Amino acid sequence: QTVVTQEPSFSVSPGGTVTLTCALRSGSVSPSHYPSWYRQTPGQAPRTLIYNTNTRSFGVPDRFSGSVLGNKAALTITGAQADDESDYYCVLYVGSGIWVFGGGTRLTVL
Amino acid sequence: QVQLVESGGGVVQPGGSLRLSCEASGFTFSGYAMHWVRQAPGKGLEWVTFIWYDGGNKYYADSMRGRVAISKDNSKTMLYLQMSRLRVEDTAVYYCGRGIGAGNSPIDHWGQGTLVTVSS
After folding, report:
1. Across-strand partners of B11?
2. What DSSP character marks residue A62?
3. Which of B19, B32, B46, B60 has its CA 20 to 30 A from that of A82?
């Protein structure tokens, strides 16, 4: 069974930069996994931030960027704001029509 | 604008069945793949299933394979998830999501979700 891992939690100072990562327990992440990122606040539906490694979804500010760094997918947030405090999830396509979400990262801005 | 509205959630006994619906509007439904994703209370997102734009290809997570069936009625712009032999651990909010393309593609738009509670 494919496992996708994310940092369980992360903190960033207001105005700061943070990079969240998304890894495969076995293997390297590449653009062929179509890494995508979502943000969710409690009680709300997820919102798409980034898809296919680095394409921002409609209306997402350019403070959010996606990439592949080494063997992981990465979501970088620059100029962190208080309302960036959310849960962030990545998803990877692992082949044969199967998608797997990471466990999510809870980002604290303080 | 893209809108996805789920319905059909509720309370069901273990071993029971339920059909979830997702009504789509604001885009050419027949041209897009669609997903179902669930989230158990206090837990993370879990991908459940995915269907190509024309309904020709369907894929399922191991956790629900054999107990769920995804379908897509392009004439009614509706997505469905038929669930059977439900277990307590299937309790979750179920979200439908639109893929960014016609085939294998991640979600770009999400519905608000519908809650399924499996309990005796």
Report:
1. B117
2. T
3. B46
Phi-psi region of B76 (alpha: psi -120 to 50; beta: other; left: phi over 0): alpha
Which has the closest alpha carbon to B18: B114, B119, B116?
B116
Q: Residue A9, exposed/middle/buried by CB under 10 A (0-12, 13-18, 19+)?
A: exposed
What would the pLDDT profile of B67-90 be if each residue is shown by its tens digit?
Answer: 999 999 999 999 999 999 999 999
Nearest by CB: B46 against A40, A93, A101: A101
Q: Counting every residue, how long is chain B?
A: 120
Q: Per-residue DSSP letters for A96-108?
A: TTEEEE---EEEE
- One digit per residue, the tens of pLDDT, for chain A of length 110 reads 899 999 999 999 999 999 999 999 989 999 999 999 999 999 999 999 999 999 999 999 999 999 999 999 999 999 999 999 999 999 999 999 999 999 999 999 99
> How far does B81 lie from chain A, in Å, by closest CA?
17
Q: A36 contacts in B (CB within 8 Å)?
A: 106-107
Chain B residues inside the 8 Å CB shell of A99: 35, 47, 50, 106
Residue among A99, A101, A105, A107 with most chain B CBs within 10 A, to mutate: A99
